[in-house]
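User: Quick sanity check before I run a bigger batch. Here is a single chain. Can you write out its predicted 3D structure?
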Amino acid sequence: MTYEAFYEPAGANRFVATPATAGPWDPAAQHAGPPSALLARALADHDPVDGQPLTRVSVDILRPVPVAELSLRVRTLRAGRRITLVEGIAEAGGQEVLHARGWRILTPAEPTPATPDDAPPAPGPDAGTEPEFWSSAHAAGYLAAMQWRFVAGAFAEPGPARVWVRPRIPLLPAEPVRPAELALLVADSGSGVSARLDLARWLFVNVDLTVTLHRPPRGEWLLLDSATTIGPHGSGVAESRLADTAGTVGRAVQTLVVAPR
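Assistant: Done. Predicted structure follows.
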């Protein structure tokens, strides 16, 4: 079954999640990408300042996000002409499920000197291959709502991976996905595409997601160039380079909890 969008509007700052938001492990729980992108949308639109795009978003995942109605609360923590810090909270069923903070940074009239992109170029999306999902995964939600093109690695292949990803549907009906929203929608998959452990034996979930963009991504596709490192004491980190077809646009980092199933 296909859905028109990840969410349906339900009034002021309220949104009903469609089954397209469901993550790979539980059809009743959302993948963290869609609600993080929804919060990014809210952070960008709250008390907006002309020429001040959303540059950095950090999301703390307090508990699983149900596939249900979400309500958002947003406030400005630090207002300014050059920089603004905005905070957002997502609630479901009377519980806070996500906290987010976003920095908006003014784009100057004169371009700043850009450093060279030293990352090796990746083959484009057309060169990638369609994936096979894990046999135990719930593939009818978020996994099916996104289009995947692996150019290195695979879901079922432990280790680093490079994969182009784009949404098949928007966040909200008839509303284009904006650059920062695309980054949050995709970046939470870094730990999944670069998994290092047997999913049947080990649980590894991220408790946060931080995305920093040095320029907005262009186009529909975003490259996840991801690697996961796991320590001996039950924690790990997944790091992703984010790129469009013109080169690197930013980075994403996730803190992981690792435990036997």
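The helical segments are 33-45, 142-145, 179-187, 190-193.

User: Great, the batch can go ahead then.
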